[in-house]
Amino acid sequence: MSISVDMTAEWILLGGLVIALILSVATGPAAAQAVQGAAGSVIIEEGETVSSVETVAGSIVIEGTVTGDVSGVAGSIRVTEGGRVGGSIVGAAGDVRIDGTVGGDVNAGAGNVRVTDTATISGDVAVGGGSVLIDGRIDGDVQAGGESVTLGPNAAIGGELRYDADEFTRDGAATVAGGVVNDPSLGSGAGAVTLPNGAATVYSLLANLVLGAILLLVFPAFSARVAGRVANNPGKTGGVGLLTLFGMPIALVLIAITIVGIPLAVLGVMAFGLGIWVGVVYGQYAVGAWVLRQTGRDDRWVALVGGLVGFAVLGLIPILGSVLELVALLLGLGAVTLGVRDAFQSRRQPGPSDRRTAFESGFTPTESGRSTEGTADNS
């Protein structure tokens, strides 16, 4: 099935917006003192120095120097052999790997945690993961919980090791100055994350499917218009999503400057966090609906399941998966923002009596076989 030149141009425009966003993140550290915000990937390249990293990203890679702390939620967090973090690392990720130097502590929950033979950590380590490997030098204490905890031959722990694991392996050459203690209480301790990668992915997918089903059932017409905006005007929708992603946090900070605005800012942060989740689900659903429509079908439930499952699988691909998930987020967030804007405008200016009927309707097939989802307005 052919795709119109105008539609192709819209998707190219959206791709350009995403590439510009990723490039701004990748090149930002050279000119900025701190890296903050959401991004597809954050890379501190060899020879670069920044003061800190605070982000939600597909991946965080430290090849250069971070003089302060690194904190974030990401698909993967890595300090390469030549990388150096002067402060501490606090994060949650699918995979955490330390090959370089960390001057402070490491607190992480991940599917896999690896401290390799080239790593040096001056502080304490508290980690939870599906599997934990320690094969480097750690000057402080270590707390580790997971399905498996392994001490390699190069492990040199200056303090005490406390662990809770179904399987514990210690190489004979590993040294632990403060002794080794099996502590079952770590399994229920605060901050322990023991879900393996596969379980975390399935849990996230199920949660997204539940939210998506609620959105389709409670807001059928709004959901149809979201998919319609993405299909008919992806460039504008993605651009609005990009502005919302970066503009809303700035607005919340400005609101919080005044004492009166602090409670509003707190509520705004909570609402924005929920909006990000809704945007992710709506974006993946909308892409699924667009792909399904190319086959000549319109089925919102198939689109929901296909879109979310498809992105869950694509998300397992390093870098590319993160980029595609970012595209879906921008599309969904932009469509929701435009939809909320239109809702406020329609409440100010009541329209014809059939407006309520349109709101309550879901996917209504037209004579051409295309649903109203595909004929949503292009605003």
UniProtKB/TrEMBL annotation:
Compositional bias ranges of the Polar residues kind: 363-379
UniProt-recorded name of the protein: Polymer-forming cytoskeletal protein
Organism per entry: Halonotius terrestris
Domain DUF8173: from-to ranges: 194-338
InterPro entries, per the entry: DUF8173 (IPR058486)
Region annotated Disordered, chain positions: 347-379
Transmembrane intervals: 205-228, 240-264, 270-292, 301-320
Taxonomic lineage: Archaea, Methanobacteriati, Methanobacteriota, Stenosarchaea group, Halobacteria
Keywords: Membrane, Transmembrane, Transmembrane helix
